[in-house]
């Protein structure tokens, strides 16, 4: 039951922490399995795309990348991860793509592939630690 000292009971924090951590690990595992069947190709940043957030009216930037598949098909895609820093046009990057659907591509960098899972994992582990601290303080 919530108190002034603990607005969220430790068992609720424990449930939240376990859920977020499990979701993070499950989605990461599914992505690793998916990326195993993907092919690699060198790519290049050909353009910077401005992304405007509806929530904060903030502008971020995502690289538009061009690469050639193993079959010689040229494919362009915009990275799903944007940031406040402008990518460098002409920069070389490695690309992972689905050979059956080359438009299904991503930059082959750990942070780009697993950013959302890392956020879930951070919140999950934080909730687990807080629940443990609150539980031990309440004993």
> H/E series, N to C?
HEEEEEH
Main beta sheet: strand number and arrangement? 5 strands, antiparallel
The number of helical elements comes to 2
Count the strands? 5
Strand order of the largest sheet: 3-2-1-4-5
Walkthrough of the structure:
The protein has 139 residues and is an alpha+beta fold. It has one domain. The protein is 40% helix and 31% strand. A 5-stranded antiparallel β-sheet has the order 3-2-1-4-5, with no helix packed on it. A hairpin with a 5-residue loop joins strand 2 and strand 3. The chain is elongated and about 65 Å long. The protein starts with 9 loop residues before the first helix and ends with a helix. The model has no long low-confidence stretch (mean pLDDT 89).
Q: Secondary-structure blueprint of this entry?
A:
Blueprint (H helix, E strand, L loop, with lengths): L9 H27 L2 E14 L6 E10 L5 E5 L13 E7 L2 E7 L2 H28 L2
Antiparallel strand pairs: 1-2, 1-4, 2-3, 4-5
Helix pairs in contact: 1-2
